[in-house]
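Researcher: Good morning. I'm working through a list of sequences from a screen, and I'd like to move beyond sequence-only analysis. For each chain I'm collecting a predicted structure so we can compare shapes side by side. This is the next one on the list. No need for commentary yet; just the structure.
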Amino acid sequence: MKHLVIIGAVWPEPNSTAAGNRMLQLIALFQKQDYDITFLCSAMPSDFSFDLITISVKTQAIQLNDSSFDTLIKELNPDAVLFDRFMIEEQYGWRVMENCPNALRILDTEDLHFLRKAREVAFKQNRELVFEDYISDVFKREMASIYRCDLTLLISEYEMQLATETFKIDASLLYYLPFLSEEININVPKFEERNHFISIGNFLHEPNWQTVLQLKKQWKSIKKQLPEAELHVYGAYVSEKAKQLHNEKEGFLIKGRAESVRDVYAKAKVLLAPIPYGAGLKGKLFEAMQLGLPSVTTKMGAEGMHGNLDWNGFITSDENEFVEKAVELYTNKSLWETAQQNGYEIIEKRFKKELFARDFINQVEYLQEHLKTHRNQNFLGQILQHQSLQSTKYMSKWIEAKNS
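Model: Good morning. Structure tokens for this chain:
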């Protein structure tokens, strides 16, 4: 059996974040090819962390800035190592390179952090994004991490285009791997069996919090036209400031963690997602399409998801139009049913697991067989691996020495 080591930023929480679901999908892809998998993480598990042992994944806690990792990774001797986001590659990539030089190094970006950061800066300054917004410290760190790795996974077609066309990263270093769907649930409650609007998203994620604030502004206009309707706002890790938005009289209800996304989606009639900025793909919208729930979102929310296909509802960034379309989708059965079918078509044609799984594994196997040639062609990666530029390595060693 081949051996994959995954170094996680956190222990996966599939019921809390789209990133947790993404991690379990990656694990399943490698297990299908008979990989033995070990998951390492320095974070403390939470009450909602997924028990990886139940899916035959070995787990082990590790320490930051500690040479015990060197001994461990040597003993594990993996064929491939997957870093969960660029910050993890910064911490452990140089240790993997020194102790397991022949292991394929894969970076899973989750989404491009520098893109999300650039959009956040523009949003908070109430202006359009300009090119200079990209060139932040996060950009430089994430780009360096991409070049140091043998393969980087991008979840969005838009991000793939940005990386190759705007920033000229060689396509051989990148792989487009979106969310993967194994099933579409068509046995869901009908239009007339559903009530109320829903919003969902982990409150620790800043774009989700901004989305809730946007909804608070728009909700009164929706409520005025639909006095019986409520907005149920779900999300893990509800903050105190979010709880203060709860208002029974207005029908704006902060519900907290959803024990089952499937269950709450089945009861709701329309998902509202006025997402102002972000990056990657939006797990809430992906799951809504899988589970037959139409949505109203922004261009940012739908980015990279529907291609040339019709959206499963409406896309608009105009506040007045957002309200209008939310009411229209909520009250028009024919429109709602068409939107639901559009969602099923998007999933079937753009996210079906069979469209990606085999090709991805083929690419991993090809790189493992031609690793030396692949790395020689990535000369910028070779430069970034040079010890004179490995600031993270020596910072880590300094912290370790200081701690001891």
